[in-house]
Amino acid sequence: MNNLIKSIKKFLGSSLLGWLLCNPIWVFAIDDQWQDVDRIVAIGDIHADYPHFVEVLTNAGIINKRGNWIAGATHLVQLGDVPDRGSDTVLCINLLRKLERQALRAGGMVHALIGNHEAMNILGDLSYVHPNDYKVLQSNQARRLQNDYYLQVREQQQRTQPDLVTGPEFRELWEQKYPLGFVEHRIAWSAKGDIGSWVLEHNAVIKINRTLFLHGGISPAVLGRTMSNINQQVRNELQAGVLTGETGLSESEQGPLWYRGLAQNDEASEAPHVEAVLAFYDVDRIVIGHTPGFGTIMPRFGGKVLLVDSGISDYYGAHLASLVLADNMLLNIQRGTTLNIPTGATDPLPYFQAVATLEPGASALQELVTRMLNPALPIK
User: Fold this and answer.
1) SS3 for 41?
2) Residues 81-91: what's their mean pLDDT?
């Protein structure tokens, strides 16, 4: 990447972007706690599906038909994973950035949390990047940047593989892997780039009133660390921009961007850990994204954990839901219909049945309802 930055600097000269890429930035502590918020709306993983993101925001009363903030002092929490899989990453990010500015002017806030896919893009794991994400970032220097990067890559490979054949076929395959706009994508998502630096302005975990919000979850390995400590380490790792495997919070399956235990582990075995998390952070509930499956807001542990990744994007079935916390109530706005989320000892079956009617394509939810109605059915 250092050689790539040098080549980009050569083309960009003394431009502002060139300066940002070649000079250090500083990451300061960012507020991660808010109290006395009357209304909170939480939205799960978007995965670059702009039309459905807009529809969910509209259903929740966050934006009007022109895409402008109308939610007053509401706090909107987007739980991470804005990019990848879908084709509209830049559109979704631009909307969030606009809403951040508009919400502040109206007395509200937008919290765009860091998810594992934001981290992957910054750190260079591009496994799920849609081709359109490269295309929309192409500059008028795209061909020159691509060619310069190709020459560098070829030179590096020839040093270690002197017999490497780099004819037209090699070049064609290389350009399929590194299309026009790839270099601009890496610039934008670098820690000093337009998108990467915006991501670093945000947190991995926050607390609003008595609710903890994060993308994946707090694992036993992370429990005991303060929010500010977690957030600063994640930002430091992303600013470094180097893949380290399981050694850091940003990539570890036990880290706050990746942990799935709150979503998938058996409730009986995970319950003591959930209680420990609630006690340590002094909250009543934990709201997470990252793990889709049922096409709706999924309460676990009597509503002490809420899974908000309903699968908004087409890739996951376009199940449109958002969580609303207001007036001491937990609500799910599913396709524009408002449903009370069951907590405590409340029977969850009527809730799941109502959602299943709205989401007939959510097969896992349909199966869950069937089993709740017929507990004697054999497990497949």
Assistant:
1) strand
2) 98
